[in-house]
């Protein structure tokens, strides 16, 4: 017959074994969790490194004109017509891996005064209204897509993905404080061959337009922010006034804006407004179809276009509509360029070779079909 002490001894042994079993289970769970975390970190590092390599490889590729490559999903774009300014003419179908003509400059071309096919554009000291320079340049059917108020982490990447899919280069007027908050996104804009231009440091009208001094302080601060993501290259000295620089009686800041134009000129900065837009900051919020219709109506009958759009955090519709807008502009015969890529020839003389080729934007040629 078992004694009380032997019974208690068995209970103690059972409880000891139970504690050991639970301890082993907890240890195993901890080891599994640690292994999972390590695996997740390794996968994350691998993905980040892959993305960096892809961005570096893309940035190092020879750039070809943004007459437009086609979407990478295999969609084709037919009947692409262009002018004699260095891009392909005629009818063609652009496949997923096809790019026609030559692209504007690589990221290093951000530096200094814009150098174009023929002569340089006037210096900012002579004429710093870049929209007027474009409209008097003698070039034909060029489209300058511009995006204001970024960079943002949700919309800017979608814009960049679409531009890359169509092999289009654009200009991003970025806010200095947002560059400092999102340096990696601003750097991606630069590394993918787009032009980063100046949209003030803070975009707060009351502070920005308090005086020419406060305006120029913000411009210079934004300039330094841009320079911080362009590998030390001197950025192209180009500004877009928040709200535009138009001398409207409805704009209470118009008087100081006119004074700021002179201050920019003295400091060697160009400024650029727009002559068409998609309406993503006009009135009520529009969906992608409405933005496209607005652009089509607004751009109808114009020669060279400087299109105002936004990549601010709330502009999802602009990201959604962009591919359709590019396809429509292609169908209208436009080629796409950065704002430092102007075929400046006020006399309007086309520079075509006797063999039927036209000079490209970086000295290469594209066969005219």
TrEMBL record:
<dbReference type="GO" id="GO:0005975">
    <property type="term" value="P:carbohydrate metabolic process"/>
</dbReference>
<keyword id="KW-0472">Membrane</keyword>
<keyword id="KW-1133">Transmembrane helix</keyword>
<dbReference type="InterPro" id="IPR002509">
    <property type="entry name" value="NODB_dom"/>
</dbReference>
<dbReference type="InterPro" id="IPR011330">
    <property type="entry name" value="Glyco_hydro/deAcase_b/a-brl"/>
</dbReference>
<feature type="domain" description="NodB homology">
    <location>
        <begin position="141"/>
        <end position="337"/>
    </location>
</feature>
<feature type="region of interest" description="Disordered">
    <location>
        <begin position="347"/>
        <end position="369"/>
    </location>
</feature>
<keyword id="KW-0812">Transmembrane</keyword>
<dbReference type="GO" id="GO:0016810">
    <property type="term" value="F:hydrolase activity, acting on carbon-nitrogen (but not peptide) bonds"/>
</dbReference>
<feature type="transmembrane region" description="Helical">
    <location>
        <begin position="25"/>
        <end position="48"/>
    </location>
</feature>
<protein>
    <submittedName>
        <fullName>Polysaccharide deacetylase</fullName>
    </submittedName>
</protein>
<feature type="region of interest" description="Disordered">
    <location>
        <begin position="58"/>
        <end position="118"/>
    </location>
</feature>
<dbReference type="InterPro" id="IPR050248">
    <property type="entry name" value="Polysacc_deacetylase_ArnD"/>
</dbReference>
<dbReference type="Pfam" id="PF01522">
    <property type="entry name" value="Polysacc_deac_1"/>
</dbReference>
